[in-house]
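Consider the following assembly input.
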Amino acid sequence: MEENNDNIQFQISDELIEKVEHLIDSRKDEDILEFLIEFHYADVAEILEELNVEQATYVIKLLDSEKTSDILVELDDDTREKILQNLSAKEIAEEIEELDTDDAADMISELPDERQEAVISQIIDEEHKAEIEELLAYDENTAGGLMAKELVSVNENWTVTQCVKEMRAQAENVTRVHSIYVVDDNEKLLGRLSLKDLLVANPRAHITSVYIPKVDSVHVNEEAEDVARIMQKYDLEAIPVVDDNYKLLGRITIDDIVDVIKEEAEKDYQLAAGITQGVEADDSIIELTRARLPWLFLGLIGGVGAALIMGDFEHMLKDYAVLFFFTPLIAAMAGNVGVQSSAIIVQGLANDDVRGSVNNRLIKEMLLAALNGIILATFLFLFVWIYKNDIYTALAISVSLVIVIIVAGLIGTFVPLFLDKRGIDPAIATGPFITTSNDIFGILIYFWIAKLILHI
Amino acid sequence: MEENNDNIQFQISDELIEKVEHLIDSRKDEDILEFLIEFHYADVAEILEELNVEQATYVIKLLDSEKTSDILVELDDDTREKILQNLSAKEIAEEIEELDTDDAADMISELPDERQEAVISQIIDEEHKAEIEELLAYDENTAGGLMAKELVSVNENWTVTQCVKEMRAQAENVTRVHSIYVVDDNEKLLGRLSLKDLLVANPRAHITSVYIPKVDSVHVNEEAEDVARIMQKYDLEAIPVVDDNYKLLGRITIDDIVDVIKEEAEKDYQLAAGITQGVEADDSIIELTRARLPWLFLGLIGGVGAALIMGDFEHMLKDYAVLFFFTPLIAAMAGNVGVQSSAIIVQGLANDDVRGSVNNRLIKEMLLAALNGIILATFLFLFVWIYKNDIYTALAISVSLVIVIIVAGLIGTFVPLFLDKRGIDPAIATGPFITTSNDIFGILIYFWIAKLILHI
């Protein structure tokens, strides 16, 4: 048994891909099957992503749908879409039959509308079909969109023995049991029971006397992000989903929540970096351009704005050219401070630990920015003084820097808080938006203050 | 039972905090206990975070250590540190007794060195003490640092009945069983068994005949990030940890991995935003300054560099002042493109889907940047042409922009790939580092190209 017991260290290699490609191209079906049987479906998915669509489709058609359904779920969206295009509605329906309802509904919802119906009509298991259709009706960003219908539930009036028997039958279809949910005759959720409790209980006892009458649940319309927050906070591995009348509708497990958390984090990160969400390094140049160009265009407008402002102060060029040399510095500092303060607020809001009044936040950020600004301005003052041997210019530039930093910090703090209050995702306030507006404000304030100090 | 069955919707309110403060200040111990008993320990932790240290400590001393140990684990690091300072070594040891070994080791490792020993010596349960000491020896960023000693393992030679009996005893100490691990007489990991399998098996069968001889495991020195990646990829809810000889040492569960994923994402986000990792909106001004100032200082140096470059081209001021007006635009675009391309690479590396050669990446980014650059430069060309009525200046500025964008994209792509190859976290390449270097390169290239085109 030694050989089965390795630490997981799957690493895809060029040789491996070449070997698979060779086997496929020479149509050695037996060898392909024998070779791929060794791999976990998640590994096979990684291999398929490196092949071309024809090769990947060939493998999917060759393997048993029990394995291919799992592989399809693991594939990245683009590859899956392409492969599914090469499969008939009937073939897709066969994959769907093997999947849990949540994965099945997700896969169907990615198909073009007209194909969705064709695939659904080919599903033979009527119960599975009805459940998938139910799930398809929920918004994908809610508890309903995350949950699976697969769960183990028992009636409060059963005995432990009846329950174990029934549970065995139900558990056939449930990959991980976690909790057994206890319901009344109307399917209303009453409580839960762990497998451990069941193992320990007297077989003749009634469920009513052994179950835990306290169970956390979420409403089917609860937002996915909130479900993630709840499950994390209370360290839950599964949570039942109910309707207005506490009727048990489904169950969400922690692995789905891990995906929500990752997607949320990636979205915020991409917004901060000025990329429209959802692109990957491997997407096409057109897709990547579409994700990046709008944000760059925003930066272009900001830069043009800055140029126009500087044009307005052109009369200062003759005597104070050095002021113009520091405009990139001012713009950069305004941008950096804005990104820092907005990122802290966005992250605090995401973790639900930004409490207290907006005014207190702004006062704190003002003090913080002033402290940072004064330290930085002192260095800049000394540099400009030595560099240009002009104490007034040095003073004008460094005082401006302090004020620009304070304003940038306040904007960076206020905007995400304001957006959040208005129900808009505050993460869009980080990155190019804050940078661009702070560039313009920064340069405008800079020249105003300099003008004031230098009496021009 | 109705009242226990609410959807989770705990929301902390000012009234709630005031009520708790009032109860504590008037020392109404019975009322405090009665009031707080209703709440989940994670909710009590949230409440304590809103109180002052004396009040929070009072509550911790008042409640039963079975509940307070869980509350302490949920508290944020700062609050926990302050409360633990107010507890004696013996009191902390009592909390530790109640905790699982992984949480216990984490809590002890946060204490000052001299207190660690004092607390450990006060732990009464010798086995618990030895296990915690074992865990404290592992690096916190490895599988050993994440794992708990609590798990259920059975010997391959036992019968199912023996196993159930033994399991019941062991399961007392294990919050969630997930899998039962099967070992030989030397504690070597052989396979696993699910509770479901155990429920279904013939009671007189031997474990050897019913267990699954294939089990994924990780080595105790595996990096935490890699463990997270493995558990996500293979959808594992728990994974056993082994040493070089496959001896079963402990177990990592998915809830610990959720924390690793979140921390990793927050770290990358903060690096991209130019904040030293680990600060929160609620930290003190001094802590926040320490986290933000170094990155701003980097920006300051970049800005001074840009100013020096512009000083070098001062002779162009007389005839081509407009060139200087567009330096913030050039710097901003160079920075934005650099952040975009580095963020895509960093995220790709984190998700392990950046494959293929560095050259191909660079060629792709060059094409992408050229496409973006040409589109943006066309707009800029038209604007400058109309604004200044000077086609050569317009041409100089827009051609420079294209080249600056291409170079910025290449730097943004190359640097994180280079750092990653060198084993350095590529996330530090996003944010201020890339912005600052791209600012300087951008402005330098901009003036060179302009000089070339305008024949100055």
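Chain B is about 65% helix and 5% strand. Ask yourself how this observation constrains the way the partners meet.
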